[in-house]
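Title: Prediction job returns without error message
Component: structure pipeline
Severity: low
Priority: P3
Assignee: unassigned

Description:
Job completed but the reporter wants confirmation the result is attached to the right record. Sequence as submitted:
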Amino acid sequence: MDKKELYKAMQALWVEENDVRVGDKVRVLRPHRSYELGSIGAAHDEEELLRRGKEGVVNDIGRGYVQIALAQDDHFLLAFHQLEIVDQPRDPVITVKYFKDGKDVTDQISPDTKRNLANA
């Protein structure tokens, strides 16, 4: 596995372990270093905008990058190791179970049927 693929796998693990989602608030821990993977384009030159402590919102999570909106028109592709998740309340995840004759049949129902039942 080359270092770019290893980086992508490490980022995917970080996203999963930290339950990172689009819309989450993050804080920049430090600017990008020229020898690091994960930051792309303007993120290499915008040290002032990406100073430590700056907060933004996750716009996109790609394979090998996390896009952050720091201001209305400032979007940067940053490395996961430059970021920390800012604690914030989330809407609860609601799990719907389907029962027939007192037995859970959730796994037996097709996604289309679930969608139709939810919209009924």
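Comment from assignee: result matches the submitted record. Residues 3-85 form a domain with the SH3 type barrels. fold (CATH 2.30.30.30).
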